[in-house]
Amino acid sequence: MADLELLTQSLARNVKRWRTERGFTLDTLAARAGVSRGMLIQIEQARTNPSLGTVVKIGDALGVSITTLLDYEQGPKVRIIPADQAVRLWHTDAGSYNRLLAGVEAPGPLEMWEWRLMPGESSLSDPHPSGTVELVHVTAGELTLTVDGVEYRVPAGASASFEAGAPHTYANSGTVPMDMVMAISVPPVQ
User: Fold this and answer.
1) pLDDT of 76
2) pLDDT tops 80 at residue 163
3) pLDDT at 17
4) Residue 90, pLDDT score
5) Which of 26, 70, 81, 149 is the one with CA 20 to 30 A from 48?
């Protein structure tokens, strides 16, 4: 089975599973996520490949990580994710990208990402649910992190943490690639 088909089927199964587990109707989840009911039906029937933004909105509304929504294996409590199975969800022609390395529910979603931003590139993130916290550790280059309109410089070897309930942007204003590892903790849905 092709990767995209596997992800589409996993997303369909997991969205329906978590929606049912939360006791949400299609209309309730649509309203919480800001996604149309029709889109949710198409996702649950594995008839569409939604954008990353749509998957993030649905995960946030359900209180689960993207990893959980895309997970196609049910298994033991220890899970090893081989390097070739990390999911690349965003990339640019210039070579910027992010990869979802791992994620768990603990008690809300907890995700670990690898990011690369090429010189002059940036990525804007909408606010996450209130209480969401991000940790970043820059391994090469310098991250220009903007949170709620305030710019911060995070050089190689340094780390930063911030409340991610405000708009934020990751940017590389330097002349060399910027690499970082990021963890995101989202509070559980109440």
Assistant:
1) 39
2) yes
3) 86
4) 83
5) 81
- Kindly state the tokens that stand for 142: 């310098």
The pTM of this model reads 0.57
Strand order in the sheet with 142-147: 122-125, 168-171, 142-147, 150-155
Q: Under a CB-based contact definition with an 8 Å cutoff, are residues 182 and 123 in contact? A: no
Residue matched to tokens 């993207």:
66
Cβ(89)–Cβ(103) below 8 Å: no
Q: How confident is the model at residue 142, as a pLDDT?
A: 96
Nearest Cα neighbor of 95 from 79, 65, 115, 73 is 115
Q: pLDDT band at residue 68, thresholds of 50, 70 and 90?
A: confident
Can you give the length of the chain in residues? 190
> Which amino acid is it at 160?
A
DSSP the chain: --HHHHHHHHHHHHHHHHHHHHT--HHHHHHHHT--HHHHHHHHTT-----HHHHHHHHHHHT--HHHHH------S-----GGGSEEEEE-TTS-EEEEEEEEESSSEEEEEEEEE-TT-EEEEPPPSTT-EEEEEEEESEEEEEETTEEEEEETT-EEEEE-SS-EEEE--SSS-EEEEEEEE-PPP-
